[in-house]
């Protein structure tokens, strides 16, 4: 099974992929609005031939936006699950600092947060 992990932000979408037990950061894409975000995610799903999409679900207003994206993807025929994304951004920042990445690079790479979300899902659902 091929998984796509998604970390949705207001302007950036982090993506990660897995074909087994290890999540790997894929890329970070920029979107300007809800429709553009959906379109880009659908394109990635089709390009990567993902069987299951795992979207990190935060609390509050952003969480409601994530549910809308998930519902839209489901309506287009994709299998989507929401997963806890608690502290994924903080963990990705700590990891990038430990890796010695410069601050400018750490701001742009939401794909590591997506990999953390996906890895947590994979670990919990072996």
Condensed summary:
By secondary structure, the chain is of the alpha/beta class.
Helices and strands in order, then pairings?
Layout: E1 3-8, E2 12-18, E3 24-30, H1 34-48, E4 52-57, H2 60-75, E5 80-84, H3 88-98, H4 103-108, H5 111-124
Parallel strand pairs: 1-4, 4-5
Antiparallel strand pairs: 1-2, 2-3
Helix pairs in contact: 3-5
Order of helices and strands: EEEHEHEHHH
CATH class group: Alpha Beta
Number of strands: 5
Tell me the CATH superfamily.
Answer: YqgF/RNase H-like domain
Reported CATH architecture: 2-Layer Sandwich
Estimated helix fraction: 40-55%
Please outline the major beta sheet: 5 strands, mixed
Description:
The chain has a single domain, classed as Nucleotidyltransferase, domain 5 (2-Layer Sandwich), CATH 3.30.420. Helices cover 49% and strands 25% of the residues. The protein has helices spanning 34-48, 60-75, 88-98, 103-108, 111-124, and strands at residues 3-8, 12-18, 24-30, 52-57, 80-84. A five-stranded mixed β-sheet has the order 3-2-1-4-5, with helices on both faces. It is globular and about 40 Å long. The model has no long low-confidence stretch (mean pLDDT 85).
